[in-house]
Amino acid sequence: MEQVRPTRMELMLKRSQIRLAEQGRDLLREKMDALIGEFFKILNAVSNTREELEQVAKEADLALMIAQAVDDPVTLKSAAFATRRSITVGITGKNIMGVPVPVIEKKRISRHTMERGYGIISTSGRIDETAERFEAELDLLIQLAETETAMRRLGSEIQKTRRRVNALEQILIPELKSEAKYIRSAIEEREREDIFRLKKVKSILERKKKKVKEKKEAAK
Amino acid sequence: MRSCRVNEMDWGYINARMRGMKSRLLNKRALDTLVLQPDLASLIAELEKTPYRDEIIEAKVRYSGVLCVEYALRKNFTRTFQKILKFVREPEAERYIRIFLHRWDVQNIKTILRGKNIHIPAEEIQDCLVPAGELDEATLTELVRQPDVRAVIDLLATWQVVYARPLTESYPTFAKSGDLSLLECALNEFYYADALEQVKPLSYNNGLIRNILALEIDVVNLRTVLRMIRDQVAPGEAKKFLISGGKEFDQEGLDHLITLHSIEEVVEELKTTPYRFLADIPPPAMRTQKISVIEKQLEKFLVQKGVGAFTGDPLSVASVIGYFWAKYNEITNIRIISRCKTADFTVEQLKEELIYV
User: Fold this and answer.
1) Which of A111, A120, A126, A127 should we substitute to test contact with B (largest number of B Cβ atoms within 10 Å)?
2) Cβ contacts of residue A112 below 8 Å, gap of 6+?
3) Residue B157: pLDDT above 90?
């Protein structure tokens, strides 16, 4: 508080700073509300996809287990050699209230039997079904990667905005207000001192005037 | 006259050995005991009381859990057929066993080609090989050491392995398109064509072998047709993957089936054939286009026919055919039981999964 100069200029500056901080706080609050809205929208999509993913993963594991049991794991692994390929995904981005979130280009991973690479004659429908289910799982995983990343980024942005709002609300604005109050009270104090001093001077002057008058009258 | 007698004696001996070996296969009660085991450890302990004892003990040194059971099953399967090959002196019986063992050669070559095509480490490829056929472990190891698909085919050609022929013929198309399934299909087609060619001379035993091979070709073709229809592959393209030499369906019949629009239509069409049992499959399975349900019935039919060969002439290759399918059935069932035990299936669920008890 000692660093604050208790001047009228400073008081005006502080007042404008308070106004600006309150305006900023309101804007950040609005942004936070919008972000929370978006967050809940994505949260619903994520929880639906997660449930779906759990179901698909369960089915895929069961299909794999049955294929391994009937066709022999060696045959299955051999077929997997033929299908092992890299997956390329295109990632672009979009902005939600200034938060950059990824958009993964959904190239369908699921393939037809003919596209998987293994010969159709010596493999079974069980292998096809296992591959299909794991491809579906992979499709969902990619979809979930996009929405979960967006959700995580929105979540951290909401947290950041909340911290900013709190900092404005709990620290900066009260500090500015207390500084303004200090300046105001310092100015008022100074004004009171001035008045008192003026009154004092006035009374001294009046006393002097009175003395001079009395001397003059005595001289007469 | 004398040679005829010797032949009859040999068939009699083979038949006796086959029936003796069949009596050591696990019966329904033994399989039920395995099904009722609470966990995999007790299943392995129970298997040690069966003819799989030696292989289980050997496998336990290298693997644990389900891998131990699967390794033991593969070892037992290989040893059983090597043992049969040693005592079988009848060329026709030997031929059938060799035809059957060649599947492992085809499977191993395909695994090596698949591995080499995407540069999988040699150890990983080696783990997926089952040296049960004519290509022994050393031969397969040398093939795995080759740097690429071309080198594998060249080495097979140098060693004059019959499978080099279809591979060499299809290699230019593969080199152009990069589609490995072309080589695989060529191999499979060759396997069946070669097998049928070997049993071409007219004789009772050759007829039996031809019959079961043709039945298998039918099942493979039906499976292909159903998968093609489900994936809506154009008939012209699908025809390339059909094998000739089937029992029930000639080329024309297959061409007709492949033009049908849905699995239900195919099943409807099969009502006039021995595959009419497919019509009993519950409609929900048909609607979901689950080929595995239909496939299970087709495989069950094939195994039943194969095992049913035991009722044929005892002085023929019938007992060998019957034994092969019975053994195949047993091994598949034990594998299903062991896998289901790892997934904590209930007894009822497990029994549903068992295909051919």
Assistant:
1) A120
2) B231, B233
3) yes
